[in-house]
Please model this.
Amino acid sequence: MMNLKTAFVAAIGVLLLVPGANAFAQDWEFVYEKDAVKVSKKEVADSNLVSFKGDTTYKQPVNMVLGVLLDNDHRIEWVDRLANNYVLESKDEFDYVLYQAFELPAIFSDRDYVYHGVATFDESNGAVTLTMQSVEHDKAPETVGVRAELINSRYILTPQENGDTRVEVEILTDPKGMMPAWFVNLITKSWPVETLNGIRAQFDTDHVKPHALPGEAARLAAAAAEEEAAAAAKAAEEAAAAEGAEGEEGAEGEEGADGEDTGGEPTAEKTEEKTEGDGGE
Model:
């Protein structure tokens, strides 16, 4: 039977992402490092809960990491105890509402979450931020036990010069129910290591594929349109230059006809004048 620590980690294993809340703005305190993951914590104002953050680097490009995070079909492989997982509403692949339910040992009631997920792209550094936060939704089913709350959480995927990706994950969650805050904090402290290394293991599977980045299609379309416009402008410029060159050649030809150079040979008019002069001698 799963121990309580593992069970609770499983219960919140799904909790990724979230808006840039003040809870993640500053004052992180390093706690420990394990399995290539650095873990930090931060006290939260007006709450007994503590925020935790994990920081690691994958030898994978950003689009491969995103391919794991947005793959609902295989999430069960790295999110422990995940029993149900489906999209309630989707504006597009980067903006959706998700329902997830977890089976816990009998000592705890099962938990489920309903949260809004959003992925954004930062053009200044190429980073992708995935954010999630609990919401209410009219298509959400009745809770399987206790409806937990994802207060704040997010992933920040930042590309490195060597092609690797630095991944920072932050989380602040309240499982609700009968779990006291001190116990939640004790267990949540290990969540970043469990989660980030669970994702790392996915890169050894065959199903992980690179995923398009947020706004990539629009950026490619804009770049193509800009390139097409530049090509059209260049073609117009070259055509105008060619037309101007033809005009100059025509003007030179007309000037040669009016003032033809005979190469020193007398013209008919000059020959006639000379003949008349010779006859008068």
User: Anything to note?
Assistant: The chain has a mean pLDDT of 82. Residues 64 and 203 are 8 Å apart (CA to CA). Strands lie at 29-34, 37-43, 50-58, 82-92, 95-102, 111-122, 127-134, 146-147, 149-159, 165-174. The chain is about 35% helix and 30% strand.
